[in-house]
Amino acid sequence: MADTAQGFMAPKGRHWILEWLFTIDHKRIGMLYLWCIALFFVVGVLLGLIIRLELFGPGKDIIGPQAYNAIFTLHGVIMIFIVVIPSIPAAFGNIFLPLQLGAEDVAFPRLNMFSWWLYIIGGAIALVSLFTGGGAPDTGWTFYVPFSAVTSTNVSVAVAGVFILGFSSILTGLNFIVTIHRLRAPGLKWTRLTLFAWALYATAWIQVLATPILSITVVLIAIERLLGMGIFDPARGGDPILYQHLFWIYSHPAVYIMILPAMGVISDIIPVFCRKSIFGYKTIVGSSLAIAFAGSLVWAHHMFVSGMSDTAVMVFSLLTFVVAVPSAVKVFNWLSTMYKGAIRPEPPLIFALGFIFLFAMGGITGLVLGSAGTDMHVHDTYFVVGHFHYVIFGGTGFGMFAAIHYWFPKIYGRMYNKKLANISAVILVVGLNGLYFPMYLLGLAGMPRRYYDYLPQYTELHQWSTYGSWITAIGLILMFYNLIHSRYRGELVGRNPWQAATLEWTLPSPPPSHNFDEEPVVTHGPYDFHEVRDHD
Amino acid sequence: MTEHHDYQGAKMGMWIFLFTEILLFGGLFVLFAVTFQRYPTEFHEASKLLDVTMGTTNTVVLITSSLCAALSIVALQRGERKRSEMLIGLTILLACCFLVIKYFEWSAKFHHGIYPGSTEIADWAPGKQAYFALYYAMTGLHGIHVIIGMAVLGWVWWLIRREKCTPDHFVALENAGLYWHLVDLIWIYLFPLYYLIT
Ligand code: HEM
Ligand SMILES: [Cu+2]
Questions:
Q1: B163-182 in b/e burial notation, b at 16+ Cβ within 10 A?
Q2: Min Cα–Cα distance to chain A from B71, Å
Q3: Residue A381 phi/psi, 5° resolution?
Q4: Looking at the predicted structure, is the pLDDT value of residue A8 above 80?
Q5: Which among B4, B133, B137 has the least Cβ separation from residue A236?
Q6: Residue A14 touches partner B, C-beta closer than 8 Å
């Protein structure tokens, strides 16, 4: 049984590079994603630090204005399309969804490999756009026309990359939907699905239904540029506002592609570390689906100042408030689960708590942006930058970190230094607040976003934010150091160090290439801890 | 590693994929609707410039090809491998016809300087220009789908020859057929929208 010592990561005979690049094992594909995402994340963070450094004082500090525009565009494109959107579903979803379902693999293993290839190709093309043509795109990650249609920088190549990345995302979503429908083990009724699987299910539908709209939008930018189409050019009968509509019809639902899987992770973690069944299983499931549905109806809250009828503004403002409800419901469910639970403050839980706090900070300010009246004041200011970083770094990023700390012992069969992990979590929470809270104040004071330079009265807050970015960096370095070190040196753990009740913990750590020797039969729910025993 | 055959799963995957394709075109249809609503008379004017005969011919060609694809599935299910192969060949041939006709249609337009960004149409009314921008975008994207569809059909044709797609395991052919019907269906919407609106 050489297989179980290293599990699915054990060499199989072919050259190891080929073995990994052309693997159809969902666990290996998940790992490929995980590594690529981690790598791109580091690049994105470095770019973020450069942005912050430049903004340390008014005027030029380290880079010129054109370089600044290119860097924040690149930062956005990498973080959104290459890191956050695929993050949890493509990495942890691939590794753990089939395990949680008691399945051998996803429904279409080869398509899964193909999705990963598309991801790599798309990411590579996006990077190539930096160094070729008229220079790195300088439009911001939203590629708004008319600027994106006329700028001489390399926008066409970048949107080609985004198109391919989108295709990869669609295929992953499709694969997951069919997997969840078709490959559940006997006894695994829909009501016994893990909440992580439910979250992936809702996410997969958004991926499938919203991403095609983004695809067509970026195709239109490309042909607008290459063939001089004029689809968004008012002089030729087009309309730039239509671009914004199409873009946000995708990109608002996309923010739920980013956050729903993280919520799924949190919903899986909290019961385990409180030794209590989740409070309101069905409400959480319902709220995931409600978010997926209602999240598709609110895109125009990004356009309150772009020129819409007053009625439209009212309707979209109202809908935005409605979509906040299911998110709040989830938060209350998590807190109620913890109430009177036997809480064990292990690192996954600490990260989960960090998630709840930071996500709440971002979510509440979302309401400020969603009310048309207040949005008029803070639209396109640093308030927005603060809001979405709280949500996607504090939310999705922390969900990702929580997931890593939760499943690390399953993937590698080893445990990291828990104390160090807890310390890094706390440093990160402090750092993120230092980095992004001043942005709220800057925004309220009127500092516009995407500006290279600023008036002297904003200096102090910008400096606080930059200090925050350094603390964040320290937290990240500590966290990554701990994980990488423990991957080789960590203490060996058995199957189920957390005494969790879901199926992946019944397998050896790391799991073998063939997931289950015999098909498991599920007899209880995912958060029923009565029957859990420590296996070895 | 043995591959499992999940007929229902494969079909479900294909239907979801087709749905994404519809949404992809959906974005363009929305653009069409909004622009049409804004420039109804210009759209009417512009549509007179298209060649209805060629459009109609192409519609007939495409519907026939769709029929061939459907018949090919029936043939394979009945175990008539040769006939199934031939019918797919015919489908691909008709797809070629479609593209050739499209080619002539487009080059005639180009010849008259009717294409987005041409100097010829620069001082036309904006609505008319928008009409042609959308016309080329939508029929062009559809044309690309025709080409992809041909490649997929060619691949299934090869599978049948190699007996990897057989009377008891024909889901690849069925899915390729579904894709082709979608390509056909989209055209059936494009045709009246562009050629017949008055
Ligand atoms: C240490 C980490 C980070 C730092 C220091 C940082 C810093 C910044 C700053 C200062 C901006 C504003 C640029 C401007 O509007 O002029 C920005 C924009 C942005 N960041 Fe980050 N960020 C970090 C991490 C992240 C993460 C994890 C994500 C994704 C989850 C992310 C996504 C974005 C996006 C989408 C934009 C918008 C770009 C635009 O305005 O077009 N960032 N970041
Ligand atoms: Cu939004």
A1: eebeeeebbbbbbbbbbbbb
A2: 28
A3: -110, -175
A4: yes
A5: B133
A6: no
C-beta neighbour count of B151 within 10 angstroms: 12
A415: which strand partners? A491
For the residues of A251-313, what is the DSSP string, one character each? HHHHHHHHHHHHHHHHHHHHHHHHTSPPTTHHHHHHHHHHHHHHGGG-GGGG-TTS---HHHH
Whether A52 is in the pocket of ligand 1, judged by its Cβ within 6 Å, is yes
Place of tokens 């070190």: A485
pLDDT at A394 over 60: yes
Q: CA dist B173 to B71, B76, B177, Å?
A: 11, 9, 6
Would the CA dihedral through A409, A414, A418, A424 be positive or negative?
Answer: negative
Minimum-distance ligand 1 atom for the alpha carbon of A382: 15
With a cut of 80, say whether residue B128 has pLDDT above it: yes
Of A177, A215, A227, the CB nearest to B24: A215
Q: Name the H helices within B2-80.
A: 7-38, 40-47, 52-77
Find chain A residues with C-beta within 8 A of B25's C-beta. 216
pLDDT tens digit sequence for B63-100 = 999 999 999 999 999 999 999 999 999 999 999 999 99
Give DSSP secondary structure letters for A21-67.
Answer: HT---HHHHHHHHHHHHHHHHHHHHHHHHHHHHHTTSSS-SSS-HHH
Tokens of A172: 């992953």
When pLDDT is averaged across residues A292-296 and rounded to a whole number, the result is 87
How, if at all, do strands A491-492 and A414-415 pair?
A: antiparallel
CA atoms within 13 A on the CB side of A60: 6
pLDDT at residue B198, rounded to an integer: 65
Classify burial at A121, counting beta carbons within 10 Å of its beta carbon; exposed 0-12, middle 13-18, buried 19 or more: middle
Residue of chain A whose alpha carbon sits nearest to that of B118: A228
Pick from B196, B152, B181, B189: which is nearest to B67 by CA? Answer: B181
Where is A492: in which H helix or E strand?
Answer: strand A491-492
